[in-house]
Amino acid sequence: MTVDRQPGLSVRLKLTLSYAGFLMIAGALLLAVVWVFLLRYVPESVTRPPNRLVLTGPDRSELWDAFAPKATAALVFLLVFGLVGGWLLAGRMLAPLARITDATRRAADGSLSHRIWLPGPGDEFRELADAFDAMLSRLEAHVAEQQRFAANASHELRTPLAITQTLLDVARNDPNSHSRELVDALRAVNTRAIDLTEAMLLLSRADQRSFTREHVDLSLVAEEAAETLLPLAEKHGLTIHTTGDIAPTTGSHALLLQLATNLVHNAIVHNLPEQGAVWVTTSVDLETVVLSVENTGDELAPRLVSTLTEPFQRGTQRVRTHNAGVGLGLAIVKSIAQAHDGTLTITPRTGGGLRVTVRLPAAATDYAMGKSK
């Protein structure tokens, strides 16, 4: 995309004229000072007595006749010197800007892997180039993440559609098939497709930060999520322990509830077959509030833990179980935390399981005091 602009002087030419103009003004002032200095010692006219030899210097008119051509020649020399020197100096000063412009055009054409790597001291051009390189790195990582997400989403959406197509083909080719079983199977597949679509929409909403901020007590949100998922925990033979302090923050209550629900749900589903436990804790740490969810479970390698926030990652491998979800649980948690200017940290627990910590900016002190009364 190009923008039509009015024709005008280039920056290099403007700098050249500025250098030359400044040099001309400085030279003219210097010559004026010299002229004023000379006038102090030269009389306006010289009176010569008749028939008498007197050694005298020139008067002012004679001095001006001698000074003016030399001053004009000096100014012409300064003008030429200023134009040539200013042009070369401006070109040298603007050379880094040309490299930045070239990198910008490459990025506009879709090449995000190019970097400027501007050498030299840390001046303004170096800071601009480093900032541009950092922006390109973030854009490249974001584009790569979006491409992976699109590919995985296409794969995930294709699976229920393929299953639906297979069930319909079987029903059409087998007139004796039981319609009740077919309807139940189609309903389960359709529910999974709907859950996946809603999860993707929620992820998009969190990334766009299109929500209204309000005061939220993270401890109450965590308790609500734990109570909602208590029947699922009892079904798996797990116990949920909820403790913590008042944790006031600002954000979307619905999104933060989704964040806590996803964390507790993951902690329940990815747990021990029996006698497992989940710990949900909230606390206040300096200027942040902390939500921590721990669970028992299998031992996970740190390398695997670092990939769990990627979309469509399900525990140790891409497997599906009855409660495996759509593979966007922790990806949604990460997006919601970032949308609230927070961070998400996942670390393996000693003996198995995970510890997931979300840190969000704390709300104003007066709100916290009001909630504690």
Question: How would you portray this structure in words?
Answer:
This protein has 10 helices and 7 strands. By secondary structure, the chain is α+β, with helices and mostly antiparallel strands. A hairpin with a 5-residue loop joins strand 6 and strand 7. The C terminus is likely disordered. It has 3 domains: about 90 residues; about 70 residues, Helix Hairpins (Orthogonal Bundle), CATH 1.10.287; about 160 residues, Heat Shock Protein 90 (2-Layer Sandwich). About 60% of the residues lie in helices and about 15% in strands. A 5-stranded mixed sheet has the order 2-4-5-7-6. A two-stranded antiparallel ribbon has the order 1-3.
Task: Summarize the structure in short.
With 373 residues, this protein is α+β, with helices and mostly antiparallel strands. It has helices at residues 11-39, 60-108, 124-173, 179-208, 218-228, 230-235, 253-269, 302-305, 329-339, 365-372; strands spanning 214-217, 238-244, 248-251, 276-285, 288-295, 343-348, 354-361.
Unreliable segments of 5+ consecutive residues:
316-323, 366-373
Largest pleated sheet? 5 strands, mixed
**Euclidean distance between termini CA atoms:** 58 Å
The 3D shape can be described as: elongated
CATH homologous superfamily identity of the largest domain: Histidine kinase-like ATPase, C-terminal domain
| Total helical segments | 10
Q: CATH topology of the largest domain, what is it called?
A: Heat Shock Protein 90
Estimate the helix proportion, in percent: 55-70%
Structural class: alpha+beta
Spatial strand sequence of the major β-sheet: 2-4-5-7-6
CATH classification class of the largest domain: Alpha Beta
User: Number of folding domains?
Assistant: 3
What is the arithmetic mean of pLDDT?
78
Radius of gyration: 38 Å
Number of strands: 7
Strand content: 5-15%
Give the helices and strands as they follow along the chain: HHHHEHHEEHEEHHEEH
Question: Which architecture of the largest domain would the CATH scheme give at its second level?
Answer: 2-Layer Sandwich
